């Protein structure tokens, strides 16, 4: 009884500290720098995905492969990226170090390929590294103070889009070279940032939440102090993290976690087989949002912008790749919107505005591409309409659905389930992304490119409805409070049932 009182008072203390005195803690340069280094992994993911957009033109010319082989080559990297969830075993930081090595090797194999088989091998290796981007996202969420989490967890998405833009820039910059040399140099440049990531990981701290799970409370306290800028806030955060990890107050700073504290064996049971109502709602919400994000068709624009603009009436490779570069620039520029607004207006409002704008843009793009079929040579105004629709579409995606979906997922899943939960979320994301990328050309041939984008518009319309009715707001909440928020509806329902039973008894 005495211990229960101590635990309750400790919990009350931690909540009061975090909710009053530390509502607006100073921004931590250490946390920001660590998040920036981790985000290089996302920059590399974006580059290796985006570079295929223009490289496929030259690969097709040199190796004489079909459209079906092209769409498989472009999309299969997302399915390859399902490999390897090791962050719970060797730590977030060591996993990022491993990622840098794979990112260095993969593009070099691709650029050295002389046939389709070795292209697929290179993309397989690169895909494994892309799969580890979940670790970078989890790491950033776990080193981010609550007051600036919306800003810092948007950094990985900024990095992805910066990588896409760099891929488009390399497409445009090397397009004038010989067919045999241009695409090889495009891929080879992807190995350079991997070196920066590898050396940068040595300056990063380990995730404090991972350290707590491993029983290294002293090291966790040191890291929390560094990233929060306050010893008192660090202690308050440590108390909350320990509560969620099931570690009692009396544990020393260094101890060996027992089965009671280390939940690896039971993690999938708690996540999927027998989740609590709150966990079930969290997982359904996260997986649904990951599905809807990629089913919106964003990767068709990322990977096939030159083909889309060609269907709209453009012919010159220079114009096709130049306009695609503008798309990448727009997508990257607008990604800063949720960084500055998610902690002010909230994640939910950004998602609603984003999906509404995407629906309008996709309908406009579909209409423009539909009208092209009525002309032998497309008028300039239709080409302009299609370009503006694509730019509008990627702008709305970058201002909401893209970055906020990932940030929302990483901050929603509880600590003990986070690595596996985010791994599952990324698996859904990558599978849907791969399917969309590998079916786009075929769908355009079957139902037309215009109706393909109308279909994406309907999916995004459903996403708007889902966000409106199913997503609670996360703004300003600590990671350790969120499970309670998702269980609120269930608790309210239980209270209403109890009230009705009592009323019935009284009557």
UniProtKB/TrEMBL annotation:
SUPFAM superfamilies: MFS general substrate transporter
Gene Ontology terms: cellular component: membrane
Gene3D superfamilies registered for this protein in UniProt: MFS general substrate transporter like domains
Membrane topology note: Multi-pass membrane protein
Main location class: membrane
Domain Major facilitator superfamily (MFS) profile: 34-475
Alphabetized UniProt keyword annotations: Membrane, Sugar transport, Symport, Transmembrane, Transmembrane helix, Transport
Subcellular location, record wording: Membrane
Sample GO molecular function, one term: symporter activity
KW Metal-binding (keyword) present: no
Transmembrane regions listed in the UniProt entry: 30-50, 94-110, 116-139, 151-169, 181-204, 318-341, 350-372, 378-401, 422-443, 449-471
InterPro entries xrefs: MFS_dom, MFS_sugar_transport-like, MFS_trans_sf, Myo-inositol_Transporter, Sugar/inositol_transpt, Sugar_transporter_CS
Keyword Kinase on entry: no
Pfam families registered for this protein in UniProt: Sugar_tr
Sequence similarity: Belongs to the major facilitator superfamily. Sugar transporter (TC 2.A.1.1) family.
Protein name as it appears in the record: Polyol/monosaccharide transporter 5
